[in-house]
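Table S2 (continued). Query chain:
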Amino acid sequence: VQLQASGGGLVQAGGSLRLSCVASGRSFGNYDIGWFRQAPGKEREFVSAISWSGSRTYYADSVKGRFTCSRDNAKNTVYLQMNSLKPEDTAVYYCAGTARRITIPTAAGTYPYWGLGTQVTVSS
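Corresponding output:
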């Protein structure tokens, strides 16, 4: 599966953005999708993940209550709605895919499929 993230941009603190991750290829519904981000000088970190059916979602503590992950398998798309953005959310955001599992992984190394990132910049 090939993935492409989009929707990043420049926003003021407290604002919102919605990222999209569009997949090409068949059987998108068989993949769990994760969102990760990487800020300059920092390691890539887990942000959120959603199960293949959309019935389960997971969030990093730093974004819980502010970000919402959802998916539309008919459109081969996963969304990350980001509200109440903070300057520390500034990073390149990536979506990644892995074959569906009983427990959705949160470690970047367990995702074999990655899209190009999209830059999110939050000004104070």
